[in-house]
Amino acid sequence: MNKTQIIKSLIPGALLSYEKYNILPSLTIAQAILETGWLQYIKGNNIFGIKWTNGCGYEVQELSTHEWINGVKTPMMCKFRKYDSLADSILDHGKLLSFTRYKSVITSKDYKEACQNVYNSGYCTDSEYPKKLISIIEQNKLYIYDAPRSEIAKNTTSKDIKHLQQCLNLMKIRATNNTTLFIDGFIGPLTVSAIKKLQDILNLSMYGIFGPEILSAVESIMERPLCSLKSNGYKTAIRYIQWRTGSSIDGIYGNETARLVKAYQQNNKLVADGIVGKNTWDRLLS
């Protein structure tokens, strides 16, 4: 896997850990990358180098490692936990950081503070650990997954959230793990990832935040306006159509969009007239 694929493989687990333990996804992903050299070095599915302790509930494996002692990198043999899967390792990492010892990590205001606090709390003995984590986060823009949970759903109700989740499913806007959303009225990390994807498509601000702007945009699409070369408005709906048909996304219904709409219609056994009317909308949102 390349770096993009590695990050993508870690995102679902990191978001679940965020939802369950409130550990910033950027920290989880960066630690996984740093601890394993971009997943090159993993023994027993232990991504984070978590040590084995009596009663931890996991099998033990003894591995050679290095610890920094009085500023000197010292080789030694240590006991580490062995997991059934990488997903188990990610969740156990979140559970570990939820302990009182790491309280400052959970309450950190941003990824920089979290990286420093995870070191201060004794997670690692390498004094350069925070800088290395921050570098990985910033070089790969992992901070985009850290939407403040208290800010995610301003002035919205559970009914609003359920409606949004239903619409995102109909629009084929999938969560980061490429699955449909649960209609539960809760703004968790997976719903946030789908919101971010739609905001990218529609070029909306308030990244990852669910508020009136995203609701209005979704409604303008669900109204299924007639769109064609003669359309002067409906930019939001046109951007969505362009995304679904593989056209360049600019909100302008030009010749390229008309051509690709015709191709979409032909592939779906619809009248290929290049006009997005009722039947084409029904197919797009089925």
TrEMBL record:
Keywords: Hydrolase. It holds the Pfam family PG_binding_1. Residues 2-146 form the Mannosyl-glycoprotein endo-beta-N-acetylglucosamidase-like domain. SUPFAM superfamilies: PGBD-like. One of its GO terms (molecular function) is amidase activity. The keyword Protease does not apply. The keyword Hydrolase applies. This is Mannosyl-glycoprotein endo-beta-N-acetylglucosamidase-like domain-containing protein. It comes from Clostridium tagluense.
